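Researcher: I'd like a structural prediction for the single chain below. Treat it as a standalone chain; there are no partners to consider.
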Amino acid sequence: MRVRRFLSPGFATLLIVAAPALVAAQANLKVHVPDSVAARANAPPPASAQQKTSIGHGTASINTAESANDMDSFWSEQIDIDGDGNVDAADVLWDDETKVLFLAKQGTFTCMNGNTGDGDLLIAQYGKGNTAGRPAGSGWWVAQLNAGECAAKADGLYGCKFNASGASTECGLAVIEEKKQDITIRAVKIAKDR
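Model: Treating it as a single chain, here is the predicted structure.
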């Protein structure tokens, strides 16, 4: 907020001009990564795991290959990945070099406004000894939303970062940074009332 002072004969006048503020948008989905997922990040992949280099669908996906020959353990399992109490058919990928567990699902999710949405969800959780130096159990999630779905203002990728206790620390429009295996939350300009 900028304050301007104008002097006129006999008295001073203050004019307050509101400038646009940069704020992070709120989370549009109810996602709380359950303890069962955290436990998965510290367990070895199943013997039946295949080898792949990516996980997820559309913009809610990530390529984990460190080099042309790098492959990671990939499997599918039934697990509640988003903490909504429903068991999901989820794809799981363990990046053994960076020690990050990725989970993806296509389907229904719960919106913050109580409605449901449908689409792609990708979750990343840092394991013990991860190369990013993040606390084990912390991570991020993203979901592709259409305008109006879960009160989204526009089509896009929305998400949150969360700490090792599972509490959201930053939410809003998200951009996946593949090389860092992280997301950036973009601030949204909101004009304040004058």
